[in-house]
């Protein structure tokens, strides 16, 4: 009997000592698997992957999801981290007509592009996938922050093409925008959430315009742009009510084995990363 007890106990002790840098949960807090995430993502029109920009585990999983989705369905990639007026340079890089050095010198790339986003772009290049620069050029979001939406109306038509069609619909009562204003204590006034909204609306616009036929658009963005089914998702649903969308939210915790109550319902899938995971900057 003692031998049998020991044989049964050893696997329990072994698995109890196993460590994983991340875990996945459903919006209700039930732990789930990557296989379930992949299966659900492949059945959607759009996947909004809400990330922490400096998290190495998140960036690894973003790449793995892209590779695995590309093996299952027609896939288009897109990202907040690339701005719409740089689409031609991005296309040239994907086509092989310019190299990385030329892309560096002609496009506005984030400081952590080479470590965190270049692998995603190179995945698209290797697999001949489209990669869409979805974000509004930052100077126009800054203009909204300083002067409001009216400041965009007099821009040349060519520059308006790099953002959602004007005037955009804006609902100041949406919880995410209201919370942003409250957390800043009114600093920046009502234009602060408006600058966020023009980014959300623009990303939704370019995602909607570039949906693959019978495929998936996998989009990478900061969590604030898609948490609680707001932001980009809100504008996508306004434009296409029947769209099948899946959201992923990233959080960090000391213990990845149970989802903290404050993170429930943030997204269809919540990615919990160990708070000790390496930061990329």
Biggest sheet architecture = 8 strands, mixed
Give average pLDDT, whole number.
93
- Helix amount: 40-55%
Low-confidence stretches: 4-16
Structural shape: globular
Total helix count? Answer: 11
Structural class: alpha/beta
Number of strands: 8
Major sheet: arrangement of strands: 2-1-8-7-3-6-4-5
Computed over alpha carbons, the radius of gyration is 21 Å
Element pattern in H and E: HEEHEHEHHHEHHHHEHEE
Characterization of the model:
The chain is α/β, with parallel strands linked by helices. Helix content is 43%, strand content 19%. The chain has helices at residues 2-17, 34-42, 56-70, 87-95, 100-106, 113-126, 138-147, 157-160, 175-183, 191-209, 232-239; strands at 22-26, 31-32, 46-51, 74-83, 130-135, 215-222, 245-253, 269-274. Strands 2-1-8-7-3-6-4-5 form an eight-stranded mixed sheet, with helices on both faces. Helix 3 (56-70) runs parallel beside helix 6 and helix 7 (138-147) runs antiparallel to helix 10. It is globular, with a radius of gyration of 21 Å. Mean pLDDT is 93; it is low at 4-16.
């Amino acid at each position: 009997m003692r031998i049998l007890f020991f044989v049964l106990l050893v696997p329990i002790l072994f698995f109890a000592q196993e460590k994983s840098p991340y875990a996945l949960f459903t919006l209700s807090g039930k732990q789930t698997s990557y296989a379930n995430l992949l299966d659900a993502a492949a059945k959607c029109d759009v996947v909004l992957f809400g990330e922490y920009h400096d998290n190495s585990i998140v960036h690894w999983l973003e790449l793995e999801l892209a590779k695995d989705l590309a093996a299952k369905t027609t896939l288009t990639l897109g990202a907040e981290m690339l701005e719409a007026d740089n689409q031609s340079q991005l296309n040239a890089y994907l086509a092989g007509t310019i190299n990385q050095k030329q892309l560096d010198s002609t496009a506005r790339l984030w400081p952590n592009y080479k470590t965190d986003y270049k692998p995603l772009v190179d995945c698209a290049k290797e697999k001949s996938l489209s990669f869409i620069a979805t974000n509004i050029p930052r100077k126009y979001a800054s203009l909204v922050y300083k002067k409001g939406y009216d400041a965009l109306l007099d821009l040349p038509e060519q520059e308006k093409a790099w953002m959602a069609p004007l005037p955009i619909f804006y609902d100041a009562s949406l919880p995410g925008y209201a919370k942003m204003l409250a957390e800043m204590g009114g600093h920046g006034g009502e234009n602060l959430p408006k600058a966020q909204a023009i980014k959300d609306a623009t990303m939704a616009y370019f995602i909607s315009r570039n949906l693959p036929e019978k495929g998936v658009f996998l989009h990478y963005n900061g969590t604030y742009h898609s948490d609680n089914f707001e932001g980009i998702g809100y504008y996508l649903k306004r434009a296409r009510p029947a769209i099948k969308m899946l959201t992923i939210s990233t959080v960090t915790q000391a213990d990845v084995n149970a989802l903290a109550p404050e993170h429930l319902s943030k997204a269809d899938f919540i990615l919990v990363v160990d708070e000790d995971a390496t930061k990329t900057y």
